[in-house]
Amino acid sequence: MALEDTQLVRGGSFMFHSAGSLPQATPEESSEEALAIAEAARDFVTGEILPRDEEIDHLDLELTRNLLAKAGDLGILGMEIPEAYGGLDLDKKTALLVLEEMAKQASFSTSYTAHTSIGTMPIVYFGNAEQKAKYLPKLATGEWCAAYALTEAGSGSDALGAKATAVLVDGHWVLNGTKAWITNAGFADVFVIFAKINGSHLSAFIVEKTDPGISTGAEEKKMGIKGSSTRTVILENCRIPEDRLLGGKGKGARIALGILNVGRFKLGASSVGGGKRVLDYTLKYTAERTQFGKPLNAFGLIQQKLANMAVRIFVGESMSFRTIGYLDEALALTSWESETGGADKMKAIDEYAMEASMSKVWGSEALFATADDAVQSFGGAGFSAEYPPEKIYRDCRINRIFEGTNEINRLLIAQTFLKRCGGVDGLPLAAGAAAPLDLPQDDLLRTVALSKARALKVIAKAQAEHGPKILDNQEAAARIANLLLEIYAMESAVVRAGKMAQAGHRWAPLAADLAAVYAQEAWNRIQGEARMLAAELASGPALDTLVAELLAMQAPAPMALSSLRQRIAAALVDQGRYPISAV
Ligand SMILES: Cc1cc2nc3c(=O)[nH]c(=O)nc-3n(C[C@H](O)[C@H](O)[C@H](O)COP(=O)(O)OP(=O)(O)OC[C@H]3O[C@@H](n4cnc5c(N)ncnc54)[C@H](O)[C@@H]3O)c2cc1C
Prior knowledge:
By secondary structure, this protein is an alpha+beta fold. It has helices at 32-49, 53-57, 61-74, 92-102, 106-119, 121-126, 129-141, 252-288, 300-332, 341-351, 353-378, 388-397, 406-420, 429-434, 443-466, 474-502, 508-537, 540-552, 561-575, and strands spanning 146-149, 165-169, 172-183, 190-197, 201-208, 214-216, 230-241, 245-246, 290-291, 294-295. The chain folds into 4 domains: 3-10 and 252-404, Butyryl-CoA Dehydrogenase, subunit A, domain 3 (Up-down Bundle); 28-145, Butyryl-Coa Dehydrogenase, subunit A, domain 1 (Orthogonal Bundle), CATH 1.10.540.10; 148-246, Butyryl-CoA Dehydrogenase, subunit A, domain 2; 407-559, Butyryl-CoA Dehydrogenase, subunit A, domain 3 (Up-down Bundle), CATH 1.20.140. Helices cover 57% and strands 10% of the residues. Strands 1, 2, 3, 4, 5, 6, 7 and 8 form an 8-stranded mixed sheet that branches. α16 packs antiparallel against α17. The two termini are 35 Å apart. The site of flavin-adenine dinucleotide (FAD) has 19 residues, from β1, β3 and α13.
């Protein structure tokens, strides 16, 4: 069934629906089964991973491998693998809850996601029956570990510009080239490697570590995630059987880019888990350390940081769940039983490529800001390797670089949105920008509605004046992306807080404060981005007119955020941890 023929929420369409009107998944509505698995993951992380934090970060790869096998015993390596191949075939929301837990140790989490996501998913979605039968059961148990090798020294962001080659000789592929920065390379048994057949058709191949001609370089000396293995993978006349071609000749770009979308969804979620851990450390430290005769958490500017950390966790989690909820709905209409099952599932994932990029960019930047707030709240101790924030700060920096840098993802967000607004059945950009304001009663939803109206007006102007050429101005494209992701984040948080209030959730008042702080801060940024984008489109009197039009639109009343943040900080300090948890 074509996605267009269903009632599913279309990717990018959130900008055109009335504020808060779209269905949205939230962690609070998680199934019993999902919670049970997430709880098992939490116990595993608390009992087995966190106590071995130091050993893992000293690059004890045997330990990491053993821990992955233990995760396999718990079933959490095979959550997204079809049951027929030894997996649990659970929905992505469950995978998200588990990932949040895993993310509490960044190095292990990197190994885990490289294995379960970019390493295993190419075989899940693109493997033929024989390939799936051979590899997936072992990848599900952790008997074998996987890696994904796309990047080369000369092709990182330009990922499809690989130079590695594959030539068919006497029923065997012969691969040559060097892949760079490959996670899990130090212990992987199975590599999904991208190379160009006869130098032109980018294709994916399954290479086993025992195949002749494959070797790995030394471990990279990294700024962070030091416990994850990162090496070059060297192919010197590496000979593999002909049937190891994955997905067909020339399907490499489809596989490489499709799989990166899966990774991006997940990176958003793992940023939330990392944020929870760093906030908990910061709450403990700021309660224990005193200055001027008071604990640090009694000071307004420390409370501001604690509150902002919680705001980012709440918003990021709302956004990740919303996105993954759309994806689960789309995936539920597909079946592994169908011959085109894998392709149908990949198509569903593509539909939300823009939302995946927004979650990745937003989540990775939010976690970095949170780690920075932690360093600052610890003062000099934050700069010392004796305390957790220093490591967390270094560990999370990579999130803005891999799975497509945030620059590339911002360009993708703007490009995908404008592309979707083109064509006969495209999203109605011009009409949306001209539509009369539909203002809800609720203050926060009204802020969402006003933000959408502002952004649509200026983006439509950009499209009308420049068409797709606006993307040639990368700063303008990034501003379009920023508008979209701020609005997506804001709406996700406001809707989730509203649902919690309706359900009488214990933490609904806290959620309302968290959403309110974000809505106000995001509104200010949206105003700024809209004005600066306008300045890229016009100058002189035309700019004055456009800015005047933007300013003439209603604006939400400013709120005093200090009292909201003090209330948030008080709840956090009282609980000693970030308290809104489904698990
Ligand atoms: C720890 C680690 C683990 C990794 N794991 C894997 C893995 O398992 N498998 C794998 O295949 N790869 C992996 N990578 C590679 C990673 O995906 C790349 O590093 C990343 O895509 C960026 O590529 P690059 O390093 O070549 O940077 P470059 O592409 O050289 O980018 C440098 C800078 O230029 C910017 N830039 C580049 N092109 C543009 C453009 N068109 N417009 C605007 N700005 C641009 C980038 O955003 C960045 O800021 C890993 C990298 C690291 C560091």
